[in-house]
Amino acid sequence: MKNTAVLLSGGVDSSVALKLLKEQGHNITAFYLKIWLEDELAHLGTCPWEQDLSYVKKVCKKENIPLKVIPLQQEYFDRVVSYAIAEIKVGRTPNPDIFCNQRIKFGAFLDYIDNSFNYIASGHYAKVITKEDGTCMLTTSPDAIKDQTYFLSYLTQAQLKRLIFPLGDYTKEQVRKLAQQFDLPTKDRKDSQGICFLGKVKFTDFIKHYLGVKEGDLIEFETNNKLGTHNGFYFYTIGQRQGLGLAGGPWYVVKKDPAQNIVYISRSYYDADKKRDSFVVKNCNWISGAVPHKNKLQVKMRHGANKYDCNVELLSDNSARVNLQENDQGIAPGQFAVFYNDTICLGAGVIDAQI
After folding, report:
1. Among this protein's residues, is 196 annotated catalytic?
2. What DSSP line would sit under 285-306, residue for residue?
């Protein structure tokens, strides 16, 4: 019998994943990872972790599954939050959720359970397929909108060999129906949104807590005229239009100068002459362990159904130049570009610079 550790979040997806594995005969222990920074951020807002845990307990009670709560707040701060703060501080746009999967859920937690479990399972929408030579491939789920391979793109072979994603062949609609069919306590819960450690805390409040306020100039990109002030370049992302507080817009953030604390803005962000179709990625993680043989691939710059056809020119084993077949208006240093060959997620790199 397979000893399987199932990560529960208190949502419908992980609950259905647990039930499916139970029906398949796995010997299951459920785990809830406590990563909310309640001591650090308590004054900024509330986190639903207690409510989440109450749902986890209800699911485990109904299915007669043992539950363990694992506190990983310090590990989460050291391995994920500190990275996010450091990236924001130098004007880049981090993705904490990708590192949460690589460094916490399937990193620190995998180290915690060691070899006492054959597998770790979660409610992610993705699939792991093992080839004849033993190499694991990460492939997309049928639900293009819910597919979560983007967030799993920094995983390694060692991690994938231990993972099971029971929802890999399902759409969200099918999972909702299964939750009703199984009469799970989470069957009517809405999906959670946002970065996992923030809860109901606004991202801007989180940044302000760690980096404070630093007044600087809002400069029109084309004229170099000062149009207003801001509270810190690190509150802004390339392509952003909301929150600038200026009349005569819409205004878009087109460039940041961290050294001078300047945010450059423009009303002509989408003009035809402003091409945004090439960038360099570094720190690439190729899931198979080898660089891809093809240079015509697809790429995502954010979670969702949208992929671009692209040409990838390898500069080294862990860096590449990417040329999109069409423009993307939100290419920002620090974001992850995730590469695909049809349904296979090949891995990801961190956007270093737009060309």
Report:
1. yes
2. EETTSS--S-SEEEEESSSSS-
